[in-house]
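Write out the 3D structure for:
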Amino acid sequence: MTRNAFVMLLALGLLAVMFSGSLRGQSVPDTVDGHVAAAKALAANEQTALITLCNPPAAPGPARANLPARGAQPPAPPDRSRWAAEPVKVFDNLYYVGEKEYSAWAVTTSAGIIIIDAIYDYSVADQVAGGLKKLGLDPANIKYVVISHAHRDHAGGAWYLQERYGAHVLMSADDWDLLGRTGGAWPKAKRDMTVIDGQQLTLGDTTLRFYSTPGHTPGTISTLVPVKDRGTPHVAALWGGTGFNFTITPEKPAAYWYDAYIKSAEHFRDAAAKAGADIFLSNHPSWDGSVAKMAALAKRGPSDPHPYVIGAPSLQRYLTIAAECARAGRLR
């Protein structure tokens, strides 16, 4: 790359960051339409499902009366064909071992494996343990299981990895409490390690850093993960909880949760910027575009860019979009 080309790219990147930063000021009208317009402007050149957070929430209909409450035990696990997915090597040291709709990530280090989110109790053996084996990795080397939040689709399999392989399970104190209050007959992990904002976890040659990002749940945590692509280092920002399906109570109305979500998105955005993060990951493939990105990864040539490496300015825009849509939701 020539010096002039490098300077031009740097200037474009700075302009993008300045633009995203300007949304934090008074340039955005503090109205639903104003925040939605700001989010859409940021999303104009981005392929991100996060913009759907700006859609008005659907009114609950009569059909929901027949659905189980979150955490409740369904009559039986869904058929395997509905959730089974093939594991994928995404980076030199990061692997996808989740389901079709629920993500689990395996970080390999010089001293063992760290799992981020453990999907469902009925699928963890096939997808996480079985997926690692298909990739030539030994699930007995799982040392830690990081749970972004205590909903069953992410925490349900933690007990299995804890009991079967002796892995330590990490979660925030608030979400350990949430897990303890959660009903349903599905097995729960025993309370183990507690994560706080800014905490690091080092295993061998790899250090993860955690950030408290409440909103989706009282104690959602998001994680910065160092990865390598053909030896080149990058930093992935894994947003721990995306949807606005808050638990509304008189003590904690919707405004409380939206405010928490906005603050968390900005907090993690700033942490990601400081770390130079240039990859956005989620615990649902639909939120980070994993289906399309994995398809592109399978066809990637020797000189093709990595489909997950979106660049630091894009990552900043992603998290600003989340905050702007939350501001619109709060005003609704």
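The two ends are 48 Å apart (CA to CA).
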